[in-house]
């Protein structure tokens, strides 16, 4: 079971490593990212950022979906990370049993080839195609919210998407 699927530009960093891994109390982290799965330097950086005692699995989005759907992992609690809304949408459309999707920090590196990014929340700035993906994500039968750290209140993505 994916306890939480978090969308975060930086994948593993202080908020994830020091705060969320304790809050979610999962044995490890699954990074679902095509680029990271092919880049040894990024993999090494992610491993260095992983808290001691936690396991890290770095897979392409398609391979991560296979891991999440593997019957051997059905009883395992997993904390999953992606760095874009489109990848999270693909996972959510192909994996059952996701506890929630936290759209935390997205858009610092927004693709401006689609024009100026759209500000959705204080830490969410999305390209138009990412905004469309977020709208699709919000229609699924999974809680989708923004919560940067556990001490912040959860804000429904549907609330943030009003008038967008």
Automatic annotation (TrEMBL):
<feature type="domain" description="PTS EIIB type-4">
    <location>
        <begin position="1"/>
        <end position="164"/>
    </location>
</feature>
<dbReference type="GO" id="GO:0016301">
    <property type="term" value="F:kinase activity"/>
</dbReference>
<keyword id="KW-0762">Sugar transport</keyword>
<dbReference type="InterPro" id="IPR036667">
    <property type="entry name" value="PTS_IIB_sorbose-sp_sf"/>
</dbReference>
<dbReference type="Pfam" id="PF03830">
    <property type="entry name" value="PTSIIB_sorb"/>
</dbReference>
<keyword id="KW-0418">Kinase</keyword>
<keyword id="KW-0808">Transferase</keyword>
<dbReference type="InterPro" id="IPR004720">
    <property type="entry name" value="PTS_IIB_sorbose-sp"/>
</dbReference>
<keyword id="KW-0598">Phosphotransferase system</keyword>
<dbReference type="GO" id="GO:0005737">
    <property type="term" value="C:cytoplasm"/>
</dbReference>
<keyword id="KW-0963">Cytoplasm</keyword>
<dbReference type="GO" id="GO:0009401">
    <property type="term" value="P:phosphoenolpyruvate-dependent sugar phosphotransferase system"/>
</dbReference>
<protein>
    <submittedName>
        <fullName>PTS mannose/fructose/sorbose transporter subunit IIB</fullName>
    </submittedName>
</protein>
<keyword id="KW-0813">Transport</keyword>
<dbReference type="GO" id="GO:0008982">
    <property type="term" value="F:protein-N(PI)-phosphohistidine-sugar phosphotransferase activity"/>
</dbReference>
């Amino acid at each position: 079971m994916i306890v939480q699927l978090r969308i975060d530009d930086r994948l593993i960093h202080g908020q994830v490593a020091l705060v969320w891994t304790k809050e979610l109390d999962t044995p490890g982290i699954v990074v679902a990212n095509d680029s990271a799965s092919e880049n040894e330097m990024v993999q090494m950086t992610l491993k260095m950022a992983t808290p001691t005692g936690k396991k890290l699995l770095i897979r392409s989005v398609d391979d991560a979906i296979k891991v999440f759907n593997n019957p051997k992992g059905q009883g395992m609690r997993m904390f999953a990370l992606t760095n874009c809304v489109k990848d999270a949408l693909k996972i959510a459309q192909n994996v059952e049993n996701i506890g929630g999707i936290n759209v935390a920090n997205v858009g610092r590196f927004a693709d401006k080839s689609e024009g100026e990014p759209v500000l959705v929340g204080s830490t969410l700035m999305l390209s138009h195609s990412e905004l469309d993906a977020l709208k699709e994500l919000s229609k699924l039968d999974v809680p989708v919210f923004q919560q940067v750290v556990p001490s912040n209140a959860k804000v429904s993505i549907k609330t943030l998407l009003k008038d967008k």
